[in-house]
Amino acid sequence: MSIPEPPANDPFHNLTPEQRAQIEDAISTSSYSAGHVFFTPDDTGDRLFVLQAGRVRLYKLAPEGRALTMAVLEPVSLFGEMTLVPGATHDSFAEAMGECVVGQIREQALRQLLASNPAFALTLMQVLGQRLRTMENKLADIAFKSVPQRLATVLLSLADKTSGEHSDINPPSVVRYTHNQLAEMIGSYRETVTKAIGEFREAGLIRIEDEAIVLTDLEKLQRLANA
Predict the structure, then answer these.
(1) Tens digit of pLDDT for each residue in 80-139?
(2) Signed CA dihedral, 181, 184, 185, 186: sign only
(3) Measured between alpha carbons, how far is 73 from 11 in angstroms, rounded to an integer?
(4) Which of 61, 96, 150, 215 could be 36's S-S partner, Cβ–Cβ 3.0 to 4.6 Å?
(5) What is the C-alpha to C-alpha distance for residues 45 and 80, in angstroms, rounded to an integer?
(6) Cβ contact 91:85 at 8 Å
(7) Sign, Cα dihedral of 90, 189, 199, 210
(8) Are 41 and 79 in contact (CB under 8 A)?
């Protein structure tokens, strides 16, 4: 399966067709079911993953079993970057959140690509930098922001921004997550998130539809997230 034609924020956006073709030749692609675990902490990184369809979450587990979701990845995303460090192991879990299509580039092929394709090497550096900034922002939010502030932040970050101009008639929405999943994304508890969701609905910031959380007041959500 070929890498989809990339939008402007895609990691492959700046590659030429020839460079993309070189990467496609090195990728082995498969479909996976919800719950499939691509790697766990202490697994040796021996391949780079390319998420082509679906969603994958990266998360850590506390000793008592509580999960903290570090990132929710959507296409096209790269993960498993510890493969770039010889002998290094992963420090998190990577799990399919639903049906997904993921490509794999084995370590040897990856090193050959990096040696022959400087643009791809630069792309991986940018991915690493963005991933590090995301983690730093998440840690800062957990340390300094309230649960409603963190919830507003994550809803805005997950909102569908690909369906054209939004308005009061066509507001952005977030694919429906369980309250427990949202709690894991913001480092809180399900009961606390359930309470905050109820307060958001009462305040007219969101509404709940069958398959989505619709963000009905972006301005107030943004002010809350930035408070």
Answers:
(1) 988 888 888 998 999 999 999 999 999 989 988 888 888 888 888 888 888 889 889 888
(2) positive
(3) 12
(4) 96
(5) 7
(6) no
(7) positive
(8) no
What amino acid occupies position 132?
A: L
Tokens standing for residue 48: 């780079």
Angle between the 147-158 and 118-144 helix axes, to the nearest 10 degrees?
150
CA-atom Rg of the chain in angstroms: 19
Cα(first)–Cα(last) distance of the chain, in Å?
44
Taking the CA atoms of residue 17, residue 18, residue 22 and residue 23 in that order, the dihedral angle to the nearest 10 degrees is -30
Alpha-carbon distance 59 to 94, whole Å? 7
- DSSP string over the chain: -PPPPP-TTSTTTT--HHHHHHHHHH-EEEEE-TT-EEE-TT-B--EEEEEEES-EEEEEE-TTS-EEEEEEE-SSEEE-GGGGSTT-B--SEEEESSSEEEEEEEHHHHHHHHHH-HHHHHHHHHHHHHHHHHHHHHHHHHHHS-HHHHHHHHHHHHS---SS---SSS--EEE---HHHHHHHHT--HHHHHHHHHHHHHTTSEEEETTEEEES-HHHHHHHHH-
Paired tokens of 24: 């496609």
